[in-house]
Write a structure and sequence with these properties.
The structure holds 2 protein chains of 2 kinds. Helices cover 74% and strands 0% of the residues of chain A. Chain A is mainly alpha-helical. Chain A has one domain. In chain B, helix 2 runs antiparallel to helix 3. The longest helix of chain B is centred in the first third of the chain and has 29 residues. The termini of chain B are far apart. Chain B is an all-alpha fold. The chains are: A mainly alpha, B mainly alpha.
Chain lengths: 146, 113
């Protein structure tokens, strides 16, 4: 082995501290799925489709929030933002939570553990319910003010 | 004699799992492109194209990427067997990042208008 060949560990210790920390943080973010055994491919695909369905739900909420910001006019200053911003934030939150859910499910399948209950359904239902209440209140208040 | 046939062994993808996954990616690509169009419209309406165009460009690239990736999954179909299917964690992570960028850009467009 030639002398100029450095190992990965040596290279990493030679790196500046900030870069090493960033690298370590990125490694933590990356899911460690190298555990257990490969599950049935149908389950892997089903888990992926479930994530994609949630991601589309998130995108739909983001798009809906954008449309609400442009289309709604309650005549109450920035009241339309009370509908638009929560919808957009809920979309982003659902995308993030569904990714974490996908990772947990993938690990559970690889380890042969049962899949846990998903809190995402409750989150989405509560979010849409709250948006409906806010919208109703704004419509009623706008009608009274006019 | 009931004439019932013994159950036959199913191939791993007789339920069309990979095909349904390809279609799910393609629907996601369409959703990304639709949100890109809404972002551009918001940019035009609020005269904030400087913010809208980069966000929309990311979403359009994501849409094209998702469509290309869906074709790759279909090509993977033949290689997948009893050993399991690949997890695609990087593609899903990129999709998550793009959705978060879209959310941040959309929120900014709605607030700054």
């Amino acid at each position: 082995m030639s002398e100029d060949v450095t190992t990965r560990a040596e290279h990493e210790t030679a790196e500046p501290t900030a870069r090493r920390r960033l690298r370590a943080a990125l490694r933590k973010l990356h899911p460690d799925l190298d555990v257990g055994t490969d599950p049935d491919p149908r389950f892997t695909f089903a888990n992926e489709r479930t994530f994609l369905a949630w991601a589309r739900t998130g995108l739909a909420l983001i798009g809906g929030g954008l449309v609400a910001a442009q289309v709604l006019h309650f005549g109450l200053g920035g009241a339309h933002l009370l509908v638009a911003i929560p919808a957009i934030l809920l979309g982003g939150l659902i995308a993030l939570a569904s990714y974490l859910r996908w990772e947990v499910n993938e690990r559970s399948m690889r380890l042969g553990r049962p899949l846990g209950y998903s809190p995402l359904v409750r989150l989405l239902a509560a979010g849409i319910g709250i948006l409906a209440v806010i919208s109703t209140v704004l419509v009623v208040v706008a009608a009274i003010v006019r | 004699m009931t004439g019932a046939r013994p159950p036959r062994a199913l191939g791993w993808d007789e339920g069309g799992a990979s095909e349904r996954t390809v279609l799910a990616w393609e629907r996601t690509a369409i959703a990304s492109l639709a949100v890109a169009a809404l972002v551009v419209r918001a940019g035009i309406v609020y005269s904030l194209l400087g913010l809208a165009i980069p966000v929309a460009a990311v979403l359009v690239l994501a849409g094209v990427g998702e469509w290309v990736f869906s074709l790759r999954i279909y090509a993977e179909h033949e290689r997948v067997g009893d050993d399991g299917a690949p997890a695609h964690e990087r593609a899903l992570g990129i999709l998550l990042a793009i959705t978060l960028i879209a959310a941040a850009g959309s929120a900014a467009l709605a607030v700054i208008r």
